[in-house]
Amino acid sequence: MNAFGAQVTIPNADVKVWIIAPIMRAISFLGDETKFLATSHRSFIAMQHSMTLLAVARQFAIEKGAAQHGIEKIGELMRHTKGVDDWANEVVSSDFATPNMHSLIASWGAIEVAVEDTFVLTLLKRPDVAVQFKTKSDTDPLDEDSARRAFRQSERKARNNRTVGECYIALLHAIDIPMASTPGTLRGLAEINAIRNCNLHRSSVIDAKAVTEPPTLASWLDKVFVVSSQSYSDYFGVMGDFAQDILRGIYASEYMAEFLLQKA
Which end of the chain, N or C, is less packed with Cβ atoms under 10 Å? Predict the structure, then answer.
């Protein structure tokens, strides 16, 4: 519910410390993503040798006089596994570039959603903050659609002459969440955003637009960007640092101060 009882679809919007709900959800997502990616890596390594292992198992079963039904089941597995080991070899030899890219995009999406939902939730929970973002066509009080429209409009303005990280910091400052990030973190976020855009719109080829904001990608111009395990680890660290910066900003905000006063 918002301040006037309207339904809000953001998860955990009704918890007492609602202001930290979006970023905590993002941090939880990042934690889960590391587990899924690590499991994915191990699975591809295992699949590399799956046909060999199944062939050995089938031959062993035949030699030991195992039941025909069991031997047929192994043969069925071999038919379903055909070609999987070749694909697994490609993935492993690429240093897991494809699963790394998918995980990077998903993790970055979690950070983006956390910023948007924090902004939107604040407008819904705090009419005194929302008033500066309202337009004549908006509902009174703001509903969630209006709040998200206000976010998109504010994001377009904040993005002008700013990197994506600087834009998100400006948006959170606009709703009275003081935060800051290091130049290294902001540079890393700009790279992640450019890599994501090029992957989805340019088949991972780094174009001229992508290197204007993070010039550190210049060596990849007109090339397919490969997310190695090391680069993934570096970028994941950047996203983790930014998530912590947001959390620190929230804890330094008036919203947390008000909650702590109520608790006392």
Answer: C
